[in-house]
Design brief:
By secondary structure, the protein is α/β, with parallel strands linked by helices. The protein has a single domain (about 20-140), classed as Ribonuclease E inhibitor RraA/RraA-like (Glucose Oxidase, domain 1, 3-Layer(bba) Sandwich). The protein has helices at about 5-10, 45-50, 75-85, 100; strands spanning about 15, 25, 30-40, 60-65, 70-75, 90-95, 105-115, 125, 130, 135, 140-145, 150-155. Strands 1, 2, 3, 4, 5, 6, 7, 8, 11 and 12 form a ten-stranded mixed beta sheet that branches. It is globular and about 40 Å long. The N and C termini lie close together (about 5 Å).
Length: about 160
């Protein structure tokens, strides 16, 4: 995969760059894929529902409202993501079980860690545009993430 820096050099007019607010937690350090989204607040029910589906070629982008009061992804959901072939997960919020997630075959970016699990009320929206880190993540667009940052494009750069 070309680095996000190389993609920015080659396609500056075609990419949006997320503010550098995320940390890398997964066992893999880079991912790219078609965006699917969950918008929720302190409830990971919809995150689980999304990760139960086939994620081949996809990255789940979770807008947790930037909450630092509980985790929206833990080791069990990360294992589910691996089983269902998700390329990665970007969380505008926290994760937990960071050590175990760091041993998975999954790319995970999040704001921070928090030991408390989230609520389970079934609240949230699926596959709606979400905005955080200064950009919009639209379902069907593409996200590229690595050590240099997270970028989004309406076009796929998979041929590069």
């Amino acid at each position: 995969m070309p680095s996000t820096a190389d993609l920015c050099d080659a396609h500056a007019a075609d990419v949006r760059i997320a503010q550098p607010i995320f940390r890398s937690y997964g066992g893999l350090r880079e991912c790219r894929g078609r965006i699917e989204t969950v918008k929720t607040f302190e409830d990971n029910s919809m995150v689980r529902a999304a990760l139960e589906e086939n994620g081949a070629g996809k990255v789940l982008v979770v807008d947790g409202g930037g909450s630092l009061d509980c985790a929206l992804l833990g080791d069990r959901l990360a294992a589910l993501a691996v089983t269902n072939r998700w390329c990665g997960v970007v969380v505008n919020g926290c994760i937990r079980d960071a050590r175990a997630i760091g041993e998975t075959h999954l790319t995970v970016f999040a704001l921070h860690t928090h030991p408390m699990k989230s609520h389970k009320r079934g609240l949230g929206d699926r596959n709606v545009p979400v905005q955080f880190a200064g950009i919009e993540f639209a379902p069907g667009h593409y996200v590229y993430a690595d050590e240099d940052g997270i970028i989004v494009s309406a076009a796929s750069f998979d041929e590069e």
